[in-house]
Amino acid sequence: MNIVLIGAPGSGKGTQSAYIVEKYGLHHVSTGEMLREYAQQDNELARRLNAMMSEGRLIPDDLMNELLTDKIIRMEVKNGFLFDGFPRTPQQASDLETLLQRVQQDLTCAIMIDVERSVIEKRLTGRFSCNSCKTTYNVYFKPTEQEGVCDVCGGCMFDRRDDDDVVAVKMRIEKYQEQSDRLCAHYEGLNKLSCVDGMQQATEVAKSISHILEGER
């Protein structure tokens, strides 16, 4: 199976990706993680990526396609791929279909996780993680039991992503909404789109996704 997971930043794609990868043995391709990996390098490309991400701008299609192609070609294909955070535009969707053909694969389905904007904003602007054990929390939905102390390791140092700034978050969501309708229409035209209610508990979202994927097998 080759699956595209669609959803706004903070819609729960990361959580559901982990579930899908574990259950179906797919290769997880997270463009967010991929971009951060490339951005850590000491070169001009890394500086360009850091500037774009810190300002909440989307990466240009040609650059994203170049990085994704490089990564996919180097990966060993077994059960298929799960694409988390890519594509975001119809052009990227077409580029992905071409890339899959290069590795002799086909797209199985695209799953869109639907979450209200107000909830997404709180999920993003409220999240932080322990500097030591990387356990994640949220000011609104999952705070630490003792303020300023990690529940897991007792650490007192926490990190926040630069692109979780309120202004950057609003920009990311607006850009996503501008393009998501056209992306979903692209997959509807291919009869490949399914939607799930992302306002449910994560376990219920996982059950909904599993039901869709079992029907594709």
Write the layout of secondary structure elements.
Blueprint: E1 3-6, H1 13-24, E2 27-30, H2 31-39, H3 44-54, H4 61-73, E3 81-84, H5 90-102, E4 109-114, H6 117-125, E5 127-130, E6 136-138, E7 158-159, H7 166-189, E8 193-197, H8 202-216
Parallel strand pairs: 1-3, 1-4, 2-3, 4-8
Antiparallel strand pairs: 5-6, 5-7
Helix pairs in contact: 1-8, 2-3, 4-5, 6-7
User: How would you classify the helix and strand content by structural class?
Assistant: alpha/beta
Number of helical stretches of at least 4 residues: 8
Q: What strand line-up does the widest sheet have?
A: 2-3-1-4-8
Give the fraction of residues assigned to helices: 40-55%
Description of the molecule:
The chain has 217 residues and is an alpha/beta fold. It has eight helices and eight strands, in the order βαβαααβαβαβββαβα. The chain has helices at 13-24, 31-39, 44-54, 61-73, 90-102, 117-125, 166-189, 202-216, and strands at residues 3-6, 27-30, 81-84, 109-114, 127-130, 136-138, 158-159, 193-197. Helix 1 (13-24) crosses helix 8 (202-216), helix 2 (31-39) crosses helix 3 (44-54) and helix 6 packs across helix 7 (166-189). The longest helix is centred in the C-terminal third of the chain and has 24 residues, at 166-189. The protein is globular, with a radius of gyration of 17 Å. The model has no long low-confidence stretch (mean pLDDT 88).
Considering the chains and any ligands shown, give keywords for the structure:
217 residues; alpha/beta; five-stranded parallel beta sheet; three-stranded antiparallel beta sheet; 8 helices; 8 strands; 49% helix; globular
